[in-house]
């Protein structure tokens, strides 16, 4: 799978949001967590409207979901903010991961059935 510059920008934006959420005391954690969810929703959908195969979309979604989970685990373990908005105990994180997993299952079923319903 070839990552495009947009993919790196999305992953960097998620990393920046996690850094701000876990290490900046002045940050409004609830707003940052909803921006995080918005970026995840965008990352799940932006390749669907381009000329990409369903298999490439599935690979991107699996890779980005795995990277997000690993980043949240690492930042939760090393973060110094007492109550971050994005952590292993926040509902927003589980909402975004659940949304991502549902989309992964949907894309996988499309590949298995041979359909191309985006």
UniProtKB/TrEMBL annotation:
The chain crosses the membrane at residues 7-24, 30-46, 58-79, 85-106. The keyword Transmembrane applies. Keywords: Membrane, Transmembrane, Transmembrane helix. This is Uncharacterized protein. It comes from Tenuibacillus multivorans.
């Amino acid at each position: 799978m070839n990552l495009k510059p947009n993919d790196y920008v999305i992953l960097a934006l998620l990393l920046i949001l996690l850094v701000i959420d876990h290490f900046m005391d002045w940050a409004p954690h609830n707003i940052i967590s909803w921006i995080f969810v918005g970026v995840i929703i965008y990352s799940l959908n932006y390749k669907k409207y381009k000329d990409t195969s369903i298999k490439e979309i599935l690979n991107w979604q699996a890779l980005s979901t795995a990277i997000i989970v690993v980043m949240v685990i690492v930042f939760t373990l090393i973060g110094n903010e007492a109550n971050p908005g994005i952590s292993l105990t926040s509902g927003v994180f589980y909402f975004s991961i659940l949304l991502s997993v549902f989309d992964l299952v949907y894309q996988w079923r499309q590949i298995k059935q041979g359909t191309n319903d985006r």
